[in-house]
Design a protein that fits this description.
Helices cover 26% and strands 22% of the residues. The chain is an alpha/beta fold and 296 residues long. 36% of the residues are buried.
Length: 296
């Protein structure tokens, strides 16, 4: 068992007026859950730390990953050992990054990621999972191009935590609501937090991983509101669209079943005559787990 709790559920409070948080310790080996005989899938939880947010100027300083095997019901049956590498960015780590991660220039001096081993491990996965895949995937694929094109999922965006009784989206906050605490902001610790969250069972008995696998397998569409007038930007933002500064366009991703309703909404609010559009309609790009969260 990886944490002293055979079912990965919320640790029980001693009374109705308090909740006990237990220190997270994810151990390798059998979890004692699920169907170990029929667990053909390999998930890989990943996390990176970087010197900043700009791909053109910043560098990866830490990569951590941990593999686990799961069965057809999305139950984790076995957990591998953790892997982690530091990397010298060739420049000083900004003070705010050191405060956040605890990593100093001395820690990473002369260090480098083992490209061959990291790519080998990533290539064994059925699904690569990060808690913020829109951040982690572009960094990992830029640093390790031979690991590009794998299937990815995001435990932050692709699990409806709120509908299942957990508020917010931050990794540490979700973990606390599930009854655990960890020393966050280092890649290895956050990887273990992701694995524990994926083991969490909702009220219907399903694991969070089961919900994530189901969502990741569904096709979706990136809709770009090309030619949208400046005057409708607040409508788009309120609808969940994001500004792509590179393409200079508002965009959002919707699951397949929501494409038609979104087209009708755009037609009424963005591409009608009174909205002063500069184009006849939006563009659509179909995405899957193999292309979702890639750098735009």
């Amino acid at each position: 068992m990886s944490n002293g709790k055979p079912n990965g559920s919320i640790p029980q409070s001693v009374t109705q007026d308090c909740r006990i948080l237990r220190r997270l310790e994810v151990r390798e080996g059998r979890t004692g859950e699920g169907n170990e005989v029929d667990a053909p899938f390999v998930g890989i939880a990943v996390d990176v730390e970087t010197t900043g947010l700009l791909h053109s100027a910043d560098r990866v300083i830490e990569l951590a990953l941990r593999r686990f095997r799961y069965d057809r019901n999305g139950v984790i049956t076995n957990i591998d050992i953790p892997y982690s590498w530091l990397e010298d960015p060739g420049r000083a780590i900004p003070p705010e990054i050191s405060r956040l991660t605890g990593l100093t220039d001395a820690d990473v001096k002369g260090q480098s990621i083992d490209d061959h081993e990291a790519i080998r491990l990533l290539s064994t996965g059925t699904l690569i999972i990060a808690h913020h895949s829109r951040f982690d995937r572009p960094w990992i694929e830029a640093r390790l191009p031979d690991a590009a094109g794998l299937a990815w999922a995001c435990s932050m965006e692709e699990i409806d935590w709120r509908a299942n009784g957990l508020e917010g989206g931050k990794l540490g906050f979700l973990l606390m609501q599930a009854g655990w605490f960890h020393e966050g902001h280092r890649a290895g610790a956050d990887v273990d937090a992701v694995i524990q969250l994926l083991r969490h069972r909702f009220d219907d008995g399903r694991t969070a991983l089961s919900a994530l696998v189901e969502r990741a397998a569904q096709p979706s569409w990136i809709i770009r509101a090309v030619g949208a007038d400046f005057g409708v930007k607040d409508l788009l933002r309120g609808r969940g669209y994001r500004w792509d500064a590179g393409r200079k366009v508002w965009w959002r991703e919707v699951v397949d079943r929501d494409r038609n309703p979104e087209e009708f909404w755009l037609a009424a609010n963005v591409y009608s005559a009174h909205a002063n559009p500069k184009a006849l309609g939006p563009t659509f790009e179909e995405v899957s787990a193999f292309t979702r969260f890639q750098a735009t």
